[in-house]
Write a structure and sequence with these properties.
This protein is an alpha/beta fold. It folds into two domains: 3-119, 3-Layer(aba) Sandwich (Rossmann fold); 144-291, Rossmann fold (3-Layer(aba) Sandwich). Helices cover 44% and strands 14% of the residues. The chain has 13 helices and twelve strands. Helix 4 (99-108) links the parallel strand 5 and strand 6 (114-117). The protein is globular and about 60 Å long.
Length: 292
C-alpha cells in the first residue's frame, strides 16, 4: 500500500502503527516523527511568513471568503506518487487542504486512490481514528494497543489531578483575535484537573471577546495557538501588554501563563495529545504549592 497523509496527526498515527514505511507523501507541516521530514511534501502554505496573529487571521478570513485556499496542493506530485490511500480531513479548511480540493485532485488522477477523512471532535473520536487507520493498514492489533496506551495515559492524568487543587484555566487556541479551546482539548484538560473557562468541548473553537475573558478572570492561562511554536507564541503574548483587559487579568499579574507548542501537542489529534496535557499538569504542580 502507498499512502499519502494530508494531516500531521494522520502521519503520526501511521508511524505509531508501524505503517510509516508505506507513507510516500506528507504535508509541509508533517514534522513528527523525524522520519517524516525526508518524505516528499505534497502541500505548501501560501500564508505570509513572520506575520502577527491578527494579520494571519485577516488573511485567512479574506482567502476563505474569496473562495481560495491557504494551502497549495501539488497535483503533479500527487499523481507521480500514485497513492492507493489518501488520508485527509473535513474538520477545518484552516488546518489542512480542504476535502473538496483533495477529492477533485483524485478525480483527475489516472490511478484510483481511496480518500478517507478523519474528523475527530472528542477524545473518543480520536481513539476511533486510531482504530480506523489501523483497519485501513492492516494493523488492528497495534491500533487496539495504541488506544489502550492512550486511555491509560489519560487515567494517569486523572489520578495525578486528584492530588492537585482544582484550577480555573483559560486555554487560548489563538491570540488575536482570542479563540477558546474546542474539540478534544477541554475534555483533555479536564482530565488533567483543570476547569476550562469559556471552552467548547466537542465543538469548533470560536472567537471569544476580551470582555468575556476579563469576566472569567482565570487563575492560569495556557497559550498554545495552532500553528505557532513557543517562541512565536511568546512574541504574540508580548504584543498584548498594551491591552488593559489583558494586563488586569489575575493570571497575567501573577505571571501564571504556560506557553506550549500548540501545533505539536494540542492541535494534532494523535498519540501525543496526552504529552501536552502532561506538560501543563506538571507546570501546574510546580506552581501550586507556592500559590497556596
Amino acid at each position: 500500500m502507498r499512502i499519502v497523509s494530508l494531516l500531521p496527526s494522520a502521519t503520526e498515527i501511521l508511524f505509531a502503527l508501524g505503517a510509516g514505511d508505506r507513507v510516500v507523501g506528507v504535508t509541509h507541516e508533517c514534522d513528527y516523527p523525524p522520519a517524516a521530514h525526508a518524505l516528499p511534501k505534497v502541500t505548501a502554505n501560501v500564508l505570509p511568513q513572520g506575520r502577527r496573529s491578527g494579520d494571519i487571521d485577516r488573511h485567512v478570513r479574506a482567502s476563505l471568503h474569496g473562495g481560495s485556499s491557504i494551502y497549495l496542493l501539488d497535483h503533479a506530485l500527487l499523481e507521480t506518487l500514485a497513492p492507493d490511500l489518501i488520508i485527509t480531513q473535513e474538520l477545518c479548511d484552516v488546518c489542512a487542504v480542504s476535502y473538496a480540493e483533495v477529492s477533485l485532485a483524485v478525480k483527475r488522477m489516472t490511478a484510483d486512490a481511496r480518500v478517507v477523512s478523519l474528523d475527530p471532535h472528542s477524545l473518543d473520536d480520536v481513539l476511533d481514528t486510531f482504530t480506523t487507520v489501523g483497519a485501513l493498514v492492516g494493523a488492528a492489533g497495534r491500533a487496539s494497543q495504541l488506544c489502550e496506551e492512550f486511555r491509560n495515559a489519560v487515567e494517569q492524568l486523572r489520578q495525578r489531578a486528584a492530588t492537585l487543587p482544582r484550577t480555573r484555566a483559560l486555554f487560548l487556541e489563538w491570540i488575536d483575535p482570542p479563540i477558546n479551546a474546542g474539540h478534544w482539548n477541554p475534555e483533555l484538560l479536564e482530565a488533567a484537573g483543570v476547569e476550562v473557562l469559556l471552552g467548547a468541548p466537542g465543538r469548533d473553537a470560536h472567537r471569544i471577546t476580551w470582555e468575556e475573558i476579563a469576566a472569567a478572570d482565570p487563575d492560569v492561562i495556557l497559550a498554545a495557538p495552532c500553528g505557532m511554536n513557543v517562541e512565536a507564541t511568546q512574541h504574540e503574548l508580548a504584543g498584548l501588554a498594551l491591552r488593559p483587559e489583558w494586563r488586569n487579568l489575575r493570571a497575567v499579574r501573577q505571571d501564571s501563563i504556560c506557553v506550549v507548542d500548540g501545533s505539536q501537542f494540542f492541535a494534532r489529534p494523535g498519540p501525543r495529545l496526552v504529552e501536552g496535557a502532561r506538560h501543563f499538569q506538571a507546570w501546574l504542580a510546580a506552581r501550586l504549592p507556592a500559590s497556596r
